[in-house]
Amino acid sequence: MSEMTLDAPEDEGAVTVNDNPVESAIARLKERFPDAVSDDPRDGYEGVIVDADKLIEVSEALRDDLGFEYLSSVTGVDLIDDGKLEVVYHVYNIEEGGSAVVMKAQTDRDNASLPSLVSVWPGADFQEREVWDMYGVHFEGHPDLRRILLWDGFKGHPLRKDWQEPFFEEEHKPFGSRWPGGSVARIEDSNPFGKNVQYPEGWLPTGDEYDVEIDMYPHEPAHREDESTRMVTDKVTVNMGPQHPSTHGVFRMVVELDGETVVSLKPVMGYLHRNHEKIGERNTFIQNIPYTDRLDYLSSMGNNLGYVLTIEKLLGSEVTERAEWIRILMAELTRIANHLWALGFLINDLGALQTPMLYFYLERELILDFFEAASGARLLCNYMRFGGVAYDLPDKVRETDTMTFLHDLIYENIPNVLDQGENLFVGNEIVRTRSIGVGVLTREDAIAYSAAGPVLRASGVQYDVRRAEPYSYYDKLDFDIPVRYNGDVYDRLLIRMDEMRQSLRILEQVLPHLKETEGMPVIGGKPQYAIRMPKAGEAYGRVENPKGELGYYVTAKRRDANPQRYHVRAPSFINLTALGKMCEGHKVADVVVILGSIDIVLGEVDR
Amino acid sequence: MYGVGILKGMAVTLKHFVDTYLDDIYWSSRGGRYYNDKAFEVRQSLKGKGVKTVFYPEEKLPMPERFRFVPFLVTDDPPPGQNWGKDWCTSCGICAKVCPPQCIWIERGKLPNGRPKPEPVNFYIDIDICMNCGFCMEFCPFDAIKLDHDYELADYDRTTAHLFDKERLSKPISYWREIAPQKAAAEEAARTFAEQSKKKKKAKRGAEGEQEPAPTLNDEYARQLMYRGASY
Predict the structure, then answer these.
(1) What percent of chain A has pLDDT over 90?
(2) Which comes out higher in pLDDT, residue A209 or A598?
(3) Which of A68, A219, A264, B161 has most Cβ atoms within 10 angstroms of its Cβ?
């Protein structure tokens, strides 16, 4: 990370004490709050520890005076040895790019409580709820602190280190029962309907006093009287989902309606929750790679890439040249495949049912054919490894030579489908009427709500991790970051078209490198099945996934084979924070389109 | 002009509609569009136009060599008159240790004197849990576990039929050579190479006089070994 900031161009001529913007920001913070801000003393850790009482003031100073106005990730860590819980904030400077100011706030494990930052960054809303859900940190001043991924009758806070799941076997994989004893035990045979469900005391699973809608909008009066007409209207609360084709999975929106107009919308999620992070902390480092496939299963290559980059930071391993080019090839093809899918579904949501959607999928299928030939699977590729990729490119894809296949795909098929897409909807009057001016997210709101990826860029923020903090070989490539300024559904639709064009530009530059490096090794060092951390530390790796900024926060102990903390900053999940804001004042039918324009995948939202 | 966009969009649909019929006409004199290997290959390639559908199960997509689905255990080809060949597995347990969902159970054999015998007594894979990641194949030092291409495993009973034991898992090496010829060849080359260099080392260490010829590999194998590593 430090290398990248050193290489950053210095044409600004700004003379500060330190050239590194993060370090100078931290120095100024310490100057202003000498008692409240101190360096993280632990070895291998970065950033500052902030006193809980001063957290809001420090955040405001960071946002207003130092230009770090984008809160990317909020996550908890259980420091069980010290009897403390820690909440980690990653804050970025959206104008300048570069790495994050990492703020940490600690609190006792019993009666854990911290001030909420929702008043400073509304984007902290869902993430703080997640920390409350998983760690039981009470955020003072949070407007709506409820569980988010788990259900109300869940007992305990599962990411705490002393919490154990009902079919708990061992703290870490590999489990001892598998070898050399090899006694088969089906987990469901051991206890099918016994203690696998626990309720907190006093909670009734069948109690009729529990009602989600009343629970969610508790203070709203049921009737409303219009002053001028003396008409009394009822507000209606409608559940959209969880079983609803427009939600792209099992996702629920509790919508409060005044007639056809949305007064308020609150998403309810967690139906696909499997506590990816707890599984990840049980797993060894390498075992997590196939699990990351299952996050955003439409762009598994990108998920793999983010994870291996993070662990490579911790390990300090080198990546071979050919592997880097292959990684970029895969990441950009994934972006195209994902956006083709997203646009197809967006058109579907707009009412052009099924048929036009399939026109986009034909080319996506070809990309998946290539993934299948290269990695062995179409969706859940499990292709990246620490230090490289698993296999070299295949010799053939469906009886066509690989390089010919890629060349034709990049120069003919995908441009053709993009042109076709333009004919299909860019000028289409129905699409324009339905999407222009719908679901507007202003630039200020997009930043405040921590929106990422196409949603952020459609709102006029030219921010892309590939440029802001380049990873892999992206700094060697020539491409533009598309940006659009209206922030409505139509712009989010167009920005995906623009991004695919830029991805094609990148791919065109990658192809000659692939030819040049043919025959070179695709992985550095010898592949190992058991990897231990050489030293303790934390790492936050992020990539620009098709859906937005995908970040992994991993901490490790020295000589440990399992991560201590493994957190995923899921872009679809955090982009949903702004959904309620975008939908207010629009009609019910528009809710479907606005949700489609965010492009969520429930595997990643619920984790 | 209002409506032009809609017409343009409809033209796209019309083109796709017409394409399917053009496709039909083209293949009518060449053995038909469906159930025809040649037509199927074109339909699934980059040049495919019109209908892209696969008429499963009459038509099936060809599996690429690296396709991975539920592992099987490699054995020697059974000697004449016998059903089973020798297991390649030495029950070292690496697959069970690296398996992300922990779906592999191995019972290691024991010699009469109580020491471990390099052979599995039992080997179970719960294929409902298996996530087809391929780590077992990738890290097996003896090439003894491979991922299969047979994906039609639907059954009526999940609890018994989907717990594969050693007998159900074992398949001869000739099967692997058949489904993944290139990979099998590269692995064989790697094994020969390793064996030869071991011999060479031994010869060097043992007697100074007799020098074995240096290992020779043809270029194709050498290339594969070099950039793919032993794991291909």
Answers:
(1) 36
(2) A598
(3) A68
* Cβ-Cβ contacts under 8 Å for B176 (sequence gap 6 or more): B74, B146, B184
Q: How far is B210 from chain A (nearest CA, A)?
A: 32
Nearest by CB: A529 against B46, B94, B106: B94
Q: Are A377 and B67 a contacting pair at CB < 8 A?
A: yes
List the CATH number of the domain containing A549: 1.10.645.10
Flag whether pLDDT at A554 surpasses 90: yes
Considering the domain boundaries, does residue A222 fall inside one? no
What local confidence, expressed as pLDDT, does residue B221 receive?
52
Chain A hits for B232, Cβ within 8 Å: 391
B166 and B95 share a domain?
yes
CB proximity list for B205: less than 8 A, separation 6 or greater: none
Q: How confident is the model at residue A2 (pLDDT cuts 50, 70, 90)?
A: very low
Residue A11 reports pLDDT greater than 50:
no
- Exposed e or buried b for every residue in B54-82, given b needs 16+ CB within 10 A? eeeeebeeebbbbbbbbbbbbbeeeeeee
pLDDT digits (tens, 9 = 90+) for A199-231: 777 776 665 555 555 666 665 666 667 778 887
What's the rounded Cα separation, in Å, for the pair A462 and A418? Answer: 22
Domain count for chain B:
3
**Helix residue spans in A353-428 (DSSP H):** 355-375, 402-408, 414-421
Quick one: pLDDT at residue A423?
87
User: How many residues does the structure list for chain B?
Assistant: 232
Domain count, chain A: 2
Q: In which band, very low, low, confident or very high, does the pLDDT at B231 lie, cut at 50, 70 and 90?
A: very low
| Beta-ladder partners of A304 | none
Determine whether the interchain pair A527/B138 forms a contact, defined as Cβ–Cβ distance below 8 Å.
yes
Q: How far is A396 from chain B (nearest CA, A)?
A: 9
pLDDT at B6: 87
Question: Cβ contacts (< 8 Å) between A397 and chain B: which residues?
Answer: 64
pLDDT computed for residue A208 by the predictor: 53
Total residue length of chain A: 607
- The CA distance from B22 to the nearest CA of chain A, in Å, is 17
Which pLDDT tens digit goes with each residue over A370-411? 999 998 899 999 999 888 888 888 888 888 889 999 999 999
Terminal alpha carbon distance of chain B: 59
Question: Bigger pLDDT: A210 or A176?
Answer: A176
Contact: A182, B182; criterion CB under 8 Å: no
Where a domain ends, among B179, B199, B215? Answer: B179
Nearest to A375 among B66, B104, B223 (CB): B66
Verify that B80 and B153 share a domain, yes or no.
Answer: yes
Q: Token pair of A131, please?
A: 């920390």
Out of A65-79, A233-247, A312-326, which region has the weakest mean confidence (pLDDT)? Answer: A233-247
In the DSSP assignment, the letter for residue A523 is B
Which one is predicted more confidently, A449 or B216? Answer: A449
Q: Among A140, A168, A195, which residue terminates a domain?
A: A140
**B85 and B174 in a common domain:** yes
Which of B227, B228, B231, B232 should we substitute to test contact with A (largest number of A Cβ atoms within 10 Å)? Answer: B227
CA-CA distance, A385 to A139, in Å (whole number)? 38
- Angle ∠(A158,A163,A167) on CA atoms, nearest 5: 95
Q: Which of A96-100, A600-604, B170-174 has the lowest mean pLDDT?
A: A96-100
Q: Which of B61, B78, B110 is the last residue of a domain?
A: B61
Give the structural domain span for A490: 276-606
Range of the domain at B151: 69-179
Q: Which residues of A touch B223 (CB under 8 A)?
A: 519
Neighbour tally for A287: CB within 10 Å: 24
Are the Cβ atoms of A178 and B96 closer than 8 angstroms?
yes
Q: How far is B207 from chain A (nearest CA, A)?
A: 31
Determine the residue of chain A that is closest to B126 in CA distance: A186
